[in-house]
Amino acid sequence: MDQVRAMAGRLLDISAATGVAGRALQTAGKVSRALQDGHPIDAASEVVRAVLPGMAETTAWVKTGAAIRAMREAAGLTIAEVGAAIDLKDPSLIEAIENGRIALSFELILRLAAVFGRNDPVGFVMRFTRTTNPELWKSLEELGIGKLVLQTVREHQFVNIYRSNDAARTLSDQEFAEILSFTQAAFEMAMALRTRYQDRSSNAGSDRAE
């Protein structure tokens, strides 16, 4: 809470220097009321909106929050239960994220992956890092890590096909080998058709160019 007050004070200094003191005073008033009412998250949100208006107004926060809420409700968990599961001292952060008032930090993405991404934690982290922290994701891609993560996600998707089919767990070794062989043949056929389609498209483009 003291940090929020300090940020609000700093905001006044910056805004006065840039000639937008009126707006800063309005924001400082909102921050003060939120702190007096015991809502530090709302106070921090007002500071962020003032300092980073473009970022705060994007739809990314809202979409991310809606996705997190949908996962929580599908799991039948309350906000307090999610907060306890990820050892969060202030569960109201979850509510603020779900309402699109604050961004989802990378640290929270990692924590929430343990709750909502148990079957595919890598995919969970990748999905929300892409949408909430594109600069970090871009850095990972430039280092080649992004491609490794993507390949891991795709492998998990294949595994999930098996995991989602209860009957598959009752297969004998011979039955599993037969289905695995059929699946491999189908996959190779699909890849061959893709290559053939790309070749035809490439040739058609060359003919039009001539």
Question: Could you explain the architecture of this structure?
Answer:
α1 runs parallel beside α3. This protein starts with a helix and ends with a helix. The protein has twelve helices and no strands. It has helices spanning 2-18, 21-36, 40-51, 53-56, 60-74, 79-85, 92-98, 106-116, 121-132, 134-142, 145-163, 173-209. The chain folds into three domains: 2-56, no CATH class; 60-158, lambda repressor-like DNA-binding domains (434 Repressor (Amino-terminal Domain)), CATH 1.10.260.40; 170-209. The longest helix has 37 residues, at 173-209. It has 210 residues and is mainly α.
Globally, the shape reads: flat
**From the alpha-carbon coordinates, what is the Rg to the nearest angstrom?**
25 Å
Low-confidence segments, given as residue ranges, are 7-22, 51-57
Instruction: Please estimate the helix content.
Output: over 70%
- The count of DSSP E runs of length 2 or more, i.e. the number of strands, is 0
Mean pLDDT: 75
Given helix and strand content, the structural type is mainly alpha
CATH classification, class level of the largest domain: Mainly Alpha
The CATH homologous superfamily name of the largest domain equals lambda repressor-like DNA-binding domains
Q: Beta-strand level of the residues, as a percent range?
A: under 5%
| CATH architecture field of the largest domain | Orthogonal Bundle
Distance between the termini: 69 Å
Q: How many structural domains does the protein architecture include?
A: 3
Helix tally equals: 12
Largest sheet descriptor: none
Per the CATH scheme, the topology name of the largest domain is 434 Repressor (Amino-terminal Domain)
What is the H-and-E element order?
HHHHHHHHHHHH
